[in-house]
């Protein structure tokens, strides 16, 4: 008897709770867009020891911590900002040596928050980017018994939204100069990366670091990149990887320099030395992070059923039943469900973000969105100006990501890899 | 009288082209293949020794005292790697007891052994071996019965006051947890307490909401058809009992 009372009480409580939640959902206004957590895209940079992972990270943050013509900028937890600035300062100081290499114990994940300032002056958080920093030896060397770092790195690679493969420009330089040491080290690095990258299903961006020391290959940057690309594609493993992945996902080859062309030279021993009066002008360091979201969504589009996607986009245009916010959320939910494997867990309020990203980044969304979006924006304005402002700002950021990559591809067509080479 | 406490030296370092690896580890850990944790808990410092309490993968509870030494011309012919970066030695000693305050002499003893191991490594970087470190008598003050504490920076060691941070706190659980940062773990006691509280709350609610005994009221009457079907719903009768609708 007592058990029956208990059961009845629990059922009643659940019923009351359900009714309360349902009525609250009906009456409550949409949540403030900036109140909750935002989606997080996880990025892992694969690169051997000395390939320039840490310098790229420091320079990338230094350049992206202010808008500099973009609609967005990055922030990070303050202790990480201190560390990144410390590394950058150490690099920039021509009277000091390069920073020491990263040890296994210094492995850490940096969390960059993409923020934007709306015309009203309000600051909005758009998304997070997790970026793993680790010792290159974890990728290439056998680990000590009892060490867990390598296993955890592999786990991170497996769950990453995008991989950045760091190709050491210094090794490329050595290879092009016919040095055996360079060929051996580049092969070792490529083998380690390719082995892991063959198994992933996320976009891949190869980054050639230390681009500045390759400047004398050709005056024209595109011609220079074409030469390096041709050399890399002559490597069987690299070519096979590109051929295997490029029909299904984006594979890029981006030349970057964390310090720029006016900061270093090769000394008599063939080492990279800082110029006494060197000035830092980093190049393309923002491109790898800018490519993450557009590349993920290009892959999403490839994986989606076209008819279903068009139907979902039409639903957003009509947005008769759910209203504009609900229609976008429904589009986001549709994309999340249909391309869950590509997107993986994003966390935060993913549906709204994905809905906006689908409209801005999917070709089908862009083709259909000009007029309907304006109409949608007017309707959103009726719902809540704060939401409207946030969504417009977020879409501007997504457009800027895409624009950055479009500009790069326009300037350096060889930066998009395909198996046709 | 208890025997003097002992420490075992270790070294983690990178070479001219080879990345950081463990080059010297306590003999008893090498024998049991249980020294990999050193890679993950020993981090480069800014001059002050670091003291970290850890659990190894095999369940050993140890204290690791470490320091960082930038390579100098007196140590090796080359002090920078092939990328022009300064090379440094992460060295120190391991103790089965808690270290209250590391003694400079103990770190010097560990450094001497570590430097020998490093010079051997530099002679052939491509074939690194892990040297088994032998125990030496410690001068550092120890607590023989471990207590569950986190790491402590030896901020008063060597008579020098640290500039910043004054104390470095690395929880033992985080240190043992590996390279990718601490994962907060709730103590089991909290979970047990939560369950007990939930059960107690449920029982209280049930007893509070239970109707007073009275005259049993009739259950609702439902006509059941003759078509074969499966039970679909139950109702609790106000006076007790359950009526099932269906068949």
TrEMBL record, chain A:
InterPro entries: P-loop_NTPase. This is Uncharacterized protein. It comes from Rhizocola hellebori. SUPFAM superfamilies: P-loop containing nucleoside triphosphate hydrolases.
UniProtKB/TrEMBL annotation, chain B:
The chain crosses the membrane at residues 190-209. The keyword Transmembrane helix applies. Keywords: Membrane, Transmembrane, Transmembrane helix. It comes from the Bacteria. The keyword Transmembrane helix applies. This is Uncharacterized protein.
């Amino acid at each position: 008897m007592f058990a029956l009372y208990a059961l009845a009480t629990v059922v009643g409580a659940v019923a009351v709770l359900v009714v309360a939640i349902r009525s609250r959902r009906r009456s409550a206004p949409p949540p403030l867009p900036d109140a909750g957590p935002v989606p997080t895209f996880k990025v892992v940079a694969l690169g051997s020891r000395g390939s320039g992972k840490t310098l790229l990270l420091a320079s990338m943050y230094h350049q992206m911590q202010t808008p500099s013509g973009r609609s967005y900028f990055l922030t990070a937890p303050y202790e990480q900002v201190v560390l990144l600035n410390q590394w950058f300062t150490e690099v920039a100081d021509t009277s000091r040596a390069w920073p020491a290499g990263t040890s296994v114990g210094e492995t850490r994940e940096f969390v960059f928050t993409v923020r934007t300032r709306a015309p009203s002056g309000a600051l909005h958080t758009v998304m997070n980017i997790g970026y793993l920093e680790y010792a290159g030896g974890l990728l290439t060397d056998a680990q000590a018994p009892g060490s867990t770092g390598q296993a955890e790195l592999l786990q991170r690679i497996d769950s990453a939204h995008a991989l950045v493969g760091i190709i050491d420009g210094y090794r490329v330089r050595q290879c092009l100069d016919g040095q055996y040491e360079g060929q051996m080290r580049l092969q070792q690095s490529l083998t380690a990366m390719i082995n892991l990258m063959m198994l992933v299903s996320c976009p891949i961006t190869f980054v050639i670091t230390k681009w500045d020391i390759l400047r004398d290959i050709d005056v024209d940057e595109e011609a220079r990149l074409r030469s390096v690309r041709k050399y890399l594609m002559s490597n069987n493993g690299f070519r096979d990887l590109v051929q295997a992945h490029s029909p299904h996902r984006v594979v890029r080859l981006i030349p970057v320099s964390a310090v720029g062309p006016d900061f270093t030279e090769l000394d008599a021993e063939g080492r990279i030395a800082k110029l006494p009066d060197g000035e830092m002008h980093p190049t393309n360091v923002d491109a790898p992070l800018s490519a993450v979201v557009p590349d993920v969504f290009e892959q999403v589009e490839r994986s989606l059923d076209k008819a279903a996607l068009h139907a979902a986009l039409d639903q957003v245009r009509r947005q008769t039943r759910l209203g504009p916010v609900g229609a976008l959320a429904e589009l986001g939910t549709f994309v999340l469900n249909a391309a869950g494997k590509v997107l993986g867990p994003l966390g935060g309020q993913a549906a709204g973000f994905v809905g906006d990203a689908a409209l801005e980044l999917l070709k089908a969304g862009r083709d259909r969105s000009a007029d309907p979006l304006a109409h949608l924006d007017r309707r959103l304005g009726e719902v809540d100006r704060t939401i409207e402002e946030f969504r417009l700002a977020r879409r501007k950021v997504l457009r800027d990501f895409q624009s950055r990559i479009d500009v790069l591809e326009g300037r350096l067509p060889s930066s998009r890899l395909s198996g046709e080479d | 009288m208890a025997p003097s406490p002992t420490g075992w030296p270790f070294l983690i370092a990178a070479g001219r082209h080879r990345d950081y690896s463990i080059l010297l580890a306590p003999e008893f850990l090498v024998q049991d293949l249980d020294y990999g944790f050193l890679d993950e808990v020993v981090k480069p410092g800014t001059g002050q020794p670091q003291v970290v309490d850890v659990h190894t993968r095999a369940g050993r509870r140890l204290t690791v005292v470490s320091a960082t030494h930038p390579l100098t011309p007196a140590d090796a012919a080359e002090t920078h790697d092939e990328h022009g970066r300064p090379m440094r030695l992460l060295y120190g000693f391991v103790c089965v007891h808690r270290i209250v305050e590391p003694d400079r002499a103990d770190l010097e003893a560990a450094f001497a052994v570590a430097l020998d191991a490093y010079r051997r490594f530099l002679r052939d970087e491509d074939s690194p071996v892990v040297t088994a470190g032998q125990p030496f008598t410690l001068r550092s003050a120890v607590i023989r019965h471990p207590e569950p504490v986190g790491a402590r920076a030896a901020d008063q060691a060597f008579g020098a006051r640290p500039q910043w941070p004054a104390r470095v706190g690395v929880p033992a659980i985080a240190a043992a947890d590996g390279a990718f940062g601490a994962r907060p773990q709730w103590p089991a006691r909290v979970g047990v307490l939560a369950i007990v509280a939930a059960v107690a709350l449920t029982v209280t609610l049930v007893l509070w909401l239970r109707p007073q005994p009275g005259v049993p009221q009739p259950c609702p009457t439902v006509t059941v058809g003759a078509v074969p079907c499966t039970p679909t719903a139950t109702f609790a009768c106000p006076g007790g009992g359950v009526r099932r609708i269906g068949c």
